[in-house]
Amino acid sequence: MDIIERIRSTVQSAPIVLFMKGTPQFPMCGFSSRTVKALNTLGAPFVSVNVLEDPEVRANLPRYSNWPTFPQLFIAGELIGGCDITLELFESGELERMVREVHKA
Length: 105
Description:
alpha+beta
């Protein structure tokens, strides 16, 4: 399976997938840390992928998503964005609505 297929498969493997630097328990950058905190505050179960442990994913995810930076949050297979967008959605209550919507199915 090529790397783009592997990324697509990962994105589709769970309702919420976060590609981040580090792990939810030990984020390796402030942006990843703030994104995890927003998801955890909502009690949103999510799958995380540590891009620091997978150089192929780190190199190719920006090409797959057309988004240059990390973290990258996907909900229901769609790229939501990075830290700033995630926090804006969190502040507005929209992220909570999206999380509830994807977990009610």
